[in-house]
Amino acid sequence: MTTRPTLSLFAAALALPALGAAVSAAQPASKTFRNGVAGCDNLLGCTALSLPADNAENVAFLKLERPGGAQGAPKLSLRVRGEKLKAPLPVSLSLDGAPFPTGGKALQASVTDEENAELLLPPAEMEALIAAARKATKLTATAAGKRYEISLS
Fold this sequence. Notes:
The chain is α+β, with helices and mostly antiparallel strands and 153 residues long. The protein has helices at residues 9-14, 16-21, 123-133, and strands spanning 29-33, 36-40, 46-50, 60-66, 75-81, 89-95, 98-100, 107-113, 116-120, 138-143, 146-151. The protein has three helices and eleven strands.
């Protein structure tokens, strides 16, 4: 039986620049965590993905992308999969039951087709979510009457 490191996906996301710097020009690298995977390509662009639970009824995942080089800005998105999704699609978030962002305002997701939607977090919310996720264990998103749970541990 193989054990996975217990480092959280968000801790990995914070370490992406170090992982990218360790990658040689010829070898992309990836690392699997309990509930996620992070990897970098040969141009030092890195991506971290949370993995949905095997038994998740409603599938959602976080995706953090950090382009290679000093000029690129990181992007954090939440992707949800549902049935008959329609725009506008407000998404309410909570960390361990506490509304996020503070005040509990819903954020707008873009619907890419009837089954997929993406919420691209603005930079301030992205930074706040990464900081708060260091202590949180679960992100819950509510959209179109469904709850989506994403493990942060």
